[in-house]
Structure formats: C-alpha cells, structure tokens
Write a structure and sequence with these properties.
Elements (H helix, E strand, L loop, with lengths): L7 E4 L6 E7 L4 H16 L4 E7 L9 H12 L4 H10 L1 H4 L9 H6 L4 H8 L2 H16 L7 E4 L2 E3 L5 H12 L6
Helix pairs in contact: 2-3, 2-6, 2-7
C-alpha cells in the first residue's frame, strides 16, 4: 500500500516500523470507537507507529459522511487536519443530525481556522479530489465497511481492544525467531 504526500499521517515518520492505514467515515459510530485507541497507540509507540487516515464516506448510510470529509480536507489545507479530525469525532453526536454544512463552521472557528479561507477551501477542487481519490482507492480494494484497517499493508480484522492492537504491533516490531 503506497503512502503519498497527500496522506494524513500521525505519529512516527517514514521510519515507522508499523504503519496503520485506517479507512474511515467521520459519521460512523464504530470509527469513533477506534479514534481514541489509535491516538493512544501513536502516543504509546511514538518511534514505531504511524496512523494514516483515509476517507471512506459511506454516503448511502450517513447523510453527513461526505460533508464531514470535505470539512476535514478544508482544515487540512490550513494544516489542521488532525485538529478537525478530533473535533469531528469528539462531537459526532452533535453534528450527525444536521443537514446544514454551515453547522461545521463552529468547529473550524474552535480550532483556529481562517474562516473565510475555510469556506472557500470547503468548495475547492483540492478538498473534493482528496475525498474522491481516497474513496476510489477504497472501492478498488473492494472495501465495504468502516473502519477497515491495514497494518503494514495487510488487511486485518478489526481488533476488539487496545491490547489486541498492542499484540499486533509487537508481532510487527519483533521478528519471529526461526527454530
């Protein structure tokens, strides 16, 4: 799985021994459940783990899936993708029922975005293309649900706990001894 300069990367840099690629939808309750777990992994393994967020908005299920993805990309154009990522997951219940994309403006203000630039970027080709390209890649990989995760390029069953993630990371970091 290719990592590109357009990817949103959190944690260890290029030398990370474990790369977790998460295909996610900001309106997905299961994705919200994994958000603090993935953040904790990056914090606990700062030299070894990086998490890459990719959009997989389930538009047929979540009315605001695409809007929230665009909102995060507008924030990314001001260097604040992860701040918006956190705001969206932290407040998911609040915005999920809204039908007005302007509802997200308060999160843009809260994380310190230039609001006029944000509103322009929200309608930009750059934001739309990033979301569309991530979605296209998810479909090419035959993904059908969120979250879907890959560890070092291998699709995994979603771990049921933080400890299961730690065990997966340990296997990647510690090569098996051949007897």
């Amino acid at each position: 799985m290719e990592i590109t300069p357009q990817d949103h990367i959190k944690g260890a840099g290029e030398n990370a021994r474990v790369t977790i690629v998460e295909w996610s939808d900001f309106q997905c309750p299961a994705c919200q459940t994994y958000y603090p777990v993935l953040s904790q992994l990056v914090e606990d393994f700062p030299s070894d783990v990086r998490v890459i967020y990719r959009h997989f908005p389930l538009r047929q299920i979540h009315a605001n899936a695409n809007n929230s993805a665009l909102v995060s990309e507008a924030a990314a154009l001001q260097g604040k993708f992860w701040e918006m990522h956190n705001a969206l997951f932290d407040n998911q219940e609040e915005w999920s029922g809204s039908r007005d994309i302007a509802f997200f403006d308060k999160y843009a203000s809260a994380i310190g975005l230039d609001i006029e630039k944000y509103k322009t970027d929200l309608k930009s080709e750059a934001a739309a293309d990033k979301v569309a390209n991530d979605l296209k890649e998810a479909l090419r990989l035959n993904l059908n649900s969120t979250p879907t995760m890959f560890v070092n390029g291998k699709k995994i069953a979603n771990p049921n706990s933080y400890q299961e993630f730690v065990d997966l990371i340990a296997k990647e970091i510690t090569p098996e001894v051949v007897q």
